Structures are given as structure tokens and as C-alpha cells.
Amino acid sequence: MTAVHDESVATTSAEADERAADRLINHRDTDIELIPPDSLTAQLVGLYTFLPINGAAFVMQVMHPVIGDVVDKFSVFRKDPVGRAIRSADSVLRWTYGGQEAIEEGKRLRRLHQPLQMRNAEGKHISALNPEAYAWVIATAFPTMTTAAPLMLGREFSEEERKELLRDNRRIAKILQVPMKGYPETLEEFDEYFDDFIENKLVRHPVAVELIEQMRTAPPVPKTVPKPLRPVLRKVAATASVPFQNFNYLTTVGVMDPRVREILGLGWTDEEQRHLEKIHARLRVAYRTLPERLTYFPLAYHARRHNDAIQAMKRREKKSAAYKYASR
User: Fold this and answer.
1) Is 103 helix (H, G, I), strand (E, B) or coil?
2) 10 Å Cβ neighbour count for 297?
3) CA distance linking residue 129 with residue 289, whole number of Å
4) What is the pTM of this model?
5) Which one is predicted more confidently, 163 or 75?
6) Cα–Cα distances in Å, from 323 out to 143, 217, 311?
7) Do 204 and 259 meet the contact criterion of CB atoms below 8 Å apart?
8) Nearest to 221 by CA among 82, 87, 51
């Protein structure tokens, strides 16, 4: 008996690692719903102008002490801010438009964050997978999208649209393998959840302050550039990046809840608000005239075109005699 029992539980190191990884997965593939390709979420997330709105969510994420400390220790946002932003955007786009790849990306991120553990300044062990903190990372997308609606659409979301966005936010939370216990299900629950974080949990974390300051600084020159060319490139970058820096800063700070700005010690004037609204009003006009290929990230553009083609096929099917006969 003992020999048989020992053989049945004996595992290789690789098998043990696989079992440990499986314990990180909270939702089976069959329990996960993907983002509908014709949803409001899919309409907005793929726009190039969504990037600074996502930046506002990232700042709010690091205002949670656990996330702020982990990002401070492990993130490359100081050395490679542009690369980090691109990789983050790639991941967000996969959650929304990646199909089955969205589920795999969620598992990958969950496993990627598992080793990110440390002791904070008080000597307390903290982890990037702390359930409260990990859930907050995904939750921040909902209030930033809600506040950004007048900028992106020129109007507020309706209550039904907000309900749809929250449903999609919960779908993404499951895609990212967030433990759903305590995650808000209704608009009322989310308002209470958000208020609790602002009043009791968010802090003016140094990383959040640093991220805001980084938005007003020209990106560093890559080390791959030859040394003799770096001073010239720095001057060019400092000048050329000013319009984007202003846009990024105004959009990021402008879509924050005023209480979040207060925690960060950020001012916000009527002039800044008017400037922000003018910029986005011009962008909305441009977006109505430009082809989608120029306004959406490539993955979003092709996913939307794929869905349009499928819907066109379904409309043609309904006109066929065979369809009419079968539907009788």
C-alpha cells in the first residue's frame, strides 16, 4: 500500500510547478465570457485616444499602497516608460479583441504577477496578487471610462450604457482571473466600492506622483542611440513631445474624480477643463472624417472589421430562400 501510495503522489518539479500555477486560476475557460465585438467597450478601448484615459486608471492603481509598492520595486516604468506603455496597451487590447487569446493572456498575467512579492517599509509581506489590490487594478477602468465619456463621445453615458460597461468590466475581471468575491455587481455597489477606496484606502503614493511628473517630461533617449547623437535627439524630443505631453497630462488628470486629484494634491482649473474639452472636440470631428484604420489600434481595427464581415454574412443569409424555409 505504501509503495503504491508513494508512486501515485510522486511528481516531477515541472508537475509541481504546473499544479502551483493552476492554483492561481480562479475561473475555468467555460465560465469566462468574452467582450462582445459590437459592445460599447469594443467601440472605445481600441481608439488611440483611449491610451491616456487608461493612464488615469494606472495612476489610480498605484495609489493603492500594495500596488504602488510593488510597481516601485518591480516595474520598468522609469527606465522604459514608452515600452511599458506599449506592452500595457497590447495586453489591454488582447483582453478586449483577442478572442480565445484573451483568456490565455489573462492566465499569463496572473502567473506573471505571482513572483512579485516583497516586504514593504513596515516589514509586512505584500504580493501583486493581493485579492483586494488585484481587483482594484481592473476596477479602475470603469470610473475613468465613465468620466471620459463626454470627451470621447461628446455626451454622458446613459444608465443602460453604464450597466453594459460594468458588465464588461466584470467580464474582463474574470478574464484576468480576479477573485470575484466582493467585486461590485451593480452600479450602486460600484459607487459604494469606489467611495470606500477613495475615503479609506487610496494614498498619495510617491509612484503616483512620479507618474504624473513623468507625463510632463520628454521620454528618455534609448541607449541604442549613439552617444554623439543623444544631446541633439534630447532637444528634438523635448520640443516634439510637448503637444503630446500636454494632451496626455490634461486627459489623464482631467478624467480623474476630483477627490482623487485632491489626494494627489493636483489642482484643476476651469481653463484646463476648457482646453481639454476643445482638444477632444477637435478629435471627435477628426474621428468622424478619418477612416477607422487611422483611429484604431491595428488589432482593434481588424477585430471590428472581422465582426462587420460576419454580421454582413448573417444579414445575407436571412434574405436567402433556404433561410426563410428553415425558419418556418
Assistant:
1) helix
2) 20
3) 43
4) 0.84
5) 163
6) 44, 60, 15
7) no
8) 82
- At position 71, the amino acid (one-letter code) is V
Cell numbers linked to 161: 450604457
Task: Give the pLDDT of residue 84.
Answer: 83
Contact 300, 95 (CB under 8 A): no
Q: Is 104 exposed, middle or buried (0-12, 13-18, 19+ CB in 10 A)?
A: middle
Q: Which residues contact 77 (CB under 8 A, 6 or more apart)?
A: 71, 84, 211, 214
Which residues neighbour 210 within 8 Å (Cβ) at sequence distance 6 or greater? 78
Start-end of H helices in 219-297: 230-240, 242-254, 258-264, 270-289
Kindly give, in sequence order, each residue whose CB lies less than 8 Å from that of residue 90, ignoring residues fewer than 6 positions away. Answer: none
**Cα Rg, the chain, nearest whole Å:** 23
- CA gap 145, 286 in Å, rounded: 20
Distance of CA 116 to the CA centre of its chain: 19
Given the C-alpha cell 428553415, which residue does it identify?
Answer: 326
Please state the length of the chain.
328
**84-90, long-range: CB within 8 Å, 24+ apart, which pairs?**
85/51, 85/55, 88/54, 88/58, 89/51, 89/54, 89/297
The stretch 82-90 carries a mean pLDDT of 85
Q: Within 13 Å, how many C-alpha atoms sit on residue 6's CB side? A: 3
As a whole number of angstroms, the distance between CA 60 and CA 133 comes to 11
* pLDDT one-digit tens code per residue, 188-236: 999 999 999 999 999 999 999 999 998 877 666 666 767 776 676 666 6
